[in-house]
Amino acid sequence: MTTGNRIIKLKVKRQECPQAKPRWEEFHMPYRPYMNIVICLREIQKDPRTSDGKLTTPVVWECGCLEEVCGVCTMLVNGKVRQACSALVDELGDEITLEPMTKFPIVRDLVVDRSRLFASLKRVRAWIPFNSAKDIGPGPHITPQQQQKDYVLSTCFSCGSCLEACPQVNERSNFIGAMPVNQARLFNDHPLGKPDAVKRLRALVEDGGIEDCGNAQNCVRSCPKHIPLVDSLAEMNRQITRSLFRLFHD
Amino acid sequence: MAKNKILVIGGGLGGLMTTIKLAEAGFSVDLFSLVPCKRSHSVCAQGGINASVNTKGEGDSPQIHFEETILGGDFLANQPMVLEMCQNAPGFVYMLDRMGVQFNRTPEGLIDFRRFGGTQFHRTAFAGSTTGQQMLYALDEQVRRYEVEGLVTRFEGWEFLSAVIDARGVARGIVAQNLTSSEIRAFRGDAAVMATGGCGMIFGRSTMSAISTGAAAASLFRQGVWYANGEFIQVHPTAVAGEDKNRLISEAVRGEGGRLWTYKDGQRWYFLEEWYPKYKNLVPRDIASRAIFKAVRELGLGVDGKDVVYLDISHVDRKTLQEKLGGILEIYEKFMNEDPSKVPMRVFPSVHYSMGGLYIDSRQMTNIPGILAAGECEYQYHGANRLGANSLLSCLQGGFSAACSAGQYVQGLDRTAADVNASIFDDRVKAETSRRSEILKMNGKENLYQLWQELGDVMTAHVTVVRYNKDLAAADVKIQDIARRAKDINVGDLSTWTNQSAVFARQFFHMIDIARVITLGALARNESRGGHYKPEFPDRDDANWLKTTVAKYTPNGPEFSYEAVDTSLLKPRERKY
Asked: Cβ contact (<8 Å) for A158 and B36?
C-alpha cells in the first residue's frame, strides 16, 4: 500500500485540570495503513510537538484493552462518542478532532471521571443476591434462547456513550441514563436475580429514574455493543406499571 | 479477635475472587486497582474456562484435566497445586453460574462446553467469546454488593508503589499513589494479596492491555520478593498484528472447527493437521506457535511472503459463529475490515501470557511474610506452558487459595498492622515521594516512549518463540544500554495532576528489571521445555533442568538459583501430541 505524503491533522481539545480553561492544539503526523486514534496519540507521545513546532506535554488520555471490550478509551472523535481504539483513521478523514466526553466531570485533556456509572450500578442493585462461594452445585437451567438474549444485555462495558448521547442527561437533570436501566433488566430477567426485582424497580422510579427518559432513542444508536437499550427502557417501564401496587405498598 | 484488615492489589479476576472470599469470611478489605475493576485486563480473555464436568459423557475427569495440564506445561509445574485446581474447577464454574455469568447453554439448559488446545475433551465453559469479561463483571458485581454492605472499600485509580516491611521482615501494609491527584499514601494491612497481572508491555506489542506492565510485581522484586520462571513467556499462535497491539483471535476459533493453513505449491496446506494428525489444530499453544514459525520463517511459506498465516472459520455456519464466537469475529471485522465468516483471517503468533511471576509457596505466600500473590503475577499452576482456558481457572483458584491462606495468616499474628509504629509507614511514603520528585525533575535527552518501543523490539526479536544464546546475550547488553539511557529521559510534563508520563516512567524502570530476569533466565536454561525453545538445545533435559528458576534482585542484575519441582503425582514422560 502506498501512503504517499498523506498527513493526518489531529486537533485535540486540551485542559490542564478542571479549573483550567480548555484550549485546542493541532498535531500533524504521516498517515500509515490501519492507523487508529490510539496510534495517533502514541505518535504524539514520542515527539510532543504541535503542528507549528511548539514543544508541549503529551496528550493525556486513557486506554486499556485496545480491542473495544474495556470501554476506557471512550471520547468524542469528530464530535461523535466512540472508543479511540476502534476509531480507524481510514474512516475518519485526514482532519480529526478529539474532545473529552461532555456529560462527565473533566479530569485532564481527554480523561473524564465516570464514577457516576458505577454508583448507578449500586443504586439498581446490579448483582445476583449470591449466597456463598462454597461448592454448592450449579444454578438453575437456563434455555439457550434466554441466554442469547441476556448475554447481549450483559456485554455493556460501562463506556458511558448512552449517557453522552442522551439529551436528558444534562446539568439540570439527575437522569441516570439507559446503562443502569439495562442492567436492572438483565438482573430482573435472571432466575436468581428475581428476589431483588421489586427493589430494582423501586430504584428506577426514584428521582432521576426512568421517568426522565425523553425517548430520544440516541442511546441505542450510540451503543458500540448494539445493546437494545430502548427495549430495555420499555421493558422496565412495563415491569414498573405491572408492579405499581407492590412498589408503593409493600 | 481484633479486626484484621487485608489489602488486595489488583481488580481483575484474581483480586476480585480474593476479595469476595475474604469478605465472605468477614474480613475488611481495601481493594486497589489502577482502573475501575470492570476495565481490568481480564476482560480480554475470550475463549473460556476449563472444568471437567463431563457434561457430554466423554469420560473426562479432574484427574485427566490435571494430567493434561501437567503434560501441557512440560512437567515444570508443582503438581499438588495443579491437582487441587483441577479438582476445584467444576465447583468454580458452578459458582460463576450462580453469580449469573451468561454461559452458553445446551438445548436442555445446561452449561455448554467446547474444545480447546491440549485436550480431546469438551472441557471449556464459555460465555460467547467474551468469557473473561463476563466472569469479571459477575465478580465485580459481587464485590459491589460487599462494598454496599461496608466490608470492602475500593481504591480505583490508585497504583501500588511498594510494600511497607518492618524490621523483622514482615509486611505491614503498602504505599500507593492516586493517579489523578498524585497523592502518595500508606495503607496499613495485616496481609497484602498481589493480583496485579502480567507484564506483556515489556514486549511492546502483545495481546495484553496497556496497563499490563508488571510494575507492581517488579517493585516487590526490588524489595526482595523472589521471581520464578520468568523466562517462560507464552506466545499465542493466533493474533492479528497491529501497530498499537496484537489483537488476540481466541483458540476457541479452532475449538469450534477453525483451521490454520498457508499456501504450498499453489495448494492450501493445513500444516498442523499434517504434522499433528491426532490433535490437529488443537495442539498446545507453544507447539502451534513453533509450527507457524517453522512454516513462515524456516520454509518461507508465509502468505504473500509476510509474517502471516490463514486462520479459516468460513466453513462454519453463520448462526454458530454468531452465538459462539460473535465478539471475536466482530473485533476482526472492525479492525481489518474483512468478514471472517467469508474470508480467512490473517494471523501470526504474539506474546500473550507470563507463566512465570512472583515466587509463592503452596499457600500463595511469597518469601516475605504477609505478601501473597494470585493470578498471572505469580508462577504456579502452568509450568513451562499454559493450556488454553486454564488462566481464568488459575485466577479463581489462586484468589480462593490466597484468601483462605491470608485469613489464617492474619489470625496467627501477634499484633496487627494498626499497632505498628507509624514511622515505618512515614519512611516508606517519604522514599516514594522523593522517588517521584526525582522522576519529575528528569529533563534529559531521551524520549521515554521511544525507549519503550526499543525495549519491546529487542524482546520480541530475541526472547520469544525461538531463542539463541548469542541473541539472548546481545539482547541483555541492549537492555542494559536502554537502562542507562533511561536515566537521561525527559519526562516532559511537570504537572502533579494526572501526570501519565511520570507514572509510565516509573513503570518503565520496573519493566527493565523484569526484562533482564526473562532474558537472563532464558540464557541460562540450556534446554527446550514448553514455551522456551532453543534450537541449539532442542530436547528437554530433566537431569539438569527439571527445576524452577528463582531470581533474586541485586543492584548488578538478577541472581539465579534453582529449586526442585514437585513431581510426586505424575512421573515425567516424553511430551508428544
From this structure: yes
